Amino acid sequence: MTENFRPTVLRNQAYEALRGKWTPAVVTSLVFCILLGVAVSLSRVNALLYLIAYLGGASIVAIGMLYACWDLFTKGTLPEAGALFAPFKQYARTVGAVLLVFVYTLLWTLLLVIPGIIKAYSYSMTFYILRENPEMTAGDAITASQKMMDGHKMDLFLLSLSFIGWAILASITFGIGYLWLIPYIYTAYAAFYETLKKETSVTPATSVSAE
Hints:
Elements: H1 7-18, H2 22-41, H3 47-75, H4 91-111, H5 113-122, H6 126-132, H7 138-148, H8 153-161, H9 164-172, H10 178-199, H11 204-209
Helix pairs in contact: 1-8, 1-10, 2-3, 2-10, 3-4, 3-10, 4-5, 4-7, 6-7
């Protein structure tokens, strides 16, 4: 692990990006949690209905949250609840990527849980790449993500692991703390992606052309 990928470094970058922007970030996070909660509540009605609602709706909103925090980190843009729905503008392409990532991860998980987790980290940059390269197909973005994450899956795992303490504290507050934790995590992931682009010699374009 290089210094730039250390969880403390990435978290500090995320915190600095959020400085002075916590209020709109928390409001956006609240809307995100409400929409996600609606999808989860459907699981009590019907498991298939929940799966459809999650893959076709809630997961798209989650990508919108991802993009809102990415824009905050790279452009200093204030998060807005409306940004959660931005991925719906390219709905078919986004849903296609969601379904592919879901199916690939599920198939690996059916073999063994650990390979499924590893693959989930391999695919984790897919939606950043998809947005940054509008000409790419979902399959190309997944391929590019795997190549970019080669040798960096542990870096992202350690970053995710570093938030466990914060997650415990958020749980103690009956979940209210997650309104702050979610944008903090997503902004740290944005910092990870931007660092990954700088540190790796593999770019989305070269990843696809190398196939």
